[in-house]
Amino acid sequence: MKEAAQRPVAEGAAGLVPPGSVRSANFALGVFLAAYILSFVDRQILSLMVEPIKRDLGISDLQIGLLQGLAFALLYSVIGVPIGLLADRVSRRRIIACGVVFWSVCTALCGFAGSFAHLFAARMGVGVGEAALSPAAHSSLGDAFPPARLARAMAIYTLGITVGTGVALMVGGSVVDAVTARGDLVLPLLGVRHAWQAAFFAVSLPGIAVAAFVAMTREPKRAVRHADARHGIGALLAYLVANRRAFAAIYGNSTILGIMGYGLVAWYPTLLIRQFGISAGQAANYLGIVYLVIGSAGSLAGGLLAERLARQGHADANLRVVMLISAAAIVPATFAPLMPSPLLVMALFAPLTFMFSGYFGCSIAAIQLATPNGMRATNAAVFLLSNSLIGLSIGAAIIPLVDKWLFGGHGAIGPALSLVGGACCTLGAIAARIGLPAYGAIVSASSAK
Prior knowledge:
- This protein is an all-alpha fold.
- It has one domain: MFS general substrate transporter like domains (Growth Hormone, Chain: A, Up-down Bundle), CATH 1.20.1250.20.
- It has helices spanning 2-5, 19-44, 50-57, 61-68, 70-87, 92-110, 116-130, 133-144, 147-157, 159-182, 195-204, 207-215, 233-242, 244-276, 280-311, 317-328, 330-335, 342-356, 359-369, 376-407, 414-447; strands spanning 185-187, 191-193.
- The longest helix has 34 residues, at 414-447.
């Protein structure tokens, strides 16, 4: 009976998951991946439109950093906790579908922005809608896939980060180049709009179709992998405190690496544009292809490595992979932004992206496998709160701040990217290593139940 309780779906006499359950799980994974890709397109497209937005709205680098970070993360992170609590009790697919519609509408509202305050408010709305996706999706996928396949499923889901970022970069770069070539656009019913405003309208349109597909997914039966089925934020906090060494490692590593990762996405395009004089479209193509191809391969490789280590008997497989990735990324993170040519920058940025992209899916799987079922969506939301409120808010703003405080504030942001990247990877590796034994003990104990 205990073994059956550990499975997200019933198993037949041959020990195989029924084909219908496999198809439902894979369909849900594909749809949630599409939603995650769209969320990153809507979230990150602003990073390639820094210069025209600054010009048209009359704002500074720091204000751009706030739009990319704090404006999105402020409500995204906080609202995620009550949404996670709700997802532990009601239909997760309905929560996701409503969130997709809401953030798509708010993305379109970004296209009407004529001031910093207006764009800030619309970006906050995008954050509210996107907060509905990951806590509910993490919980749903955790029930749809067996523990042995969860790291791979989460790695596939987190392809949304690399694919979405790559698409956002390339679309945004094309739009910015169009500003120079064509100027403002005349749109039906909307009148004269800047090209960057039209980009927000364009990327908001697929949201309705994605929401419809989300509504077609099947709500999986909630599995019970732990005897503890308590609910609520109080129960979760008590559980986190009782297992603080393991969860401090997972939370700490992901938050630290999140600072670096959001800084990369927000400022590497500007680094290439300012330092080497290339166009936004060229910078977008360089970075976008790396994220799409190299980053996606790295995300899958991280999940597959964790799966392989788990099959070899390493209960701490997911956090172990995170530790190894953090350590391996120190050198390219430190030296890539200091290279004297765009080719050399990309030569180091590519392996950095490959390694870095593998950590997040493993971190998500680590959270799910170490948390009782009745609080898994809530813990996912709290995890994303930490990763986003701290990682995204600080990551997008810390680069111009470090440039100002330590390097004179002249806008040559390479040294700031180097310092932040090297420090974050080092601290992230240390944080993961400290919690490795405690995390492995939790996973071993839960597997034995």
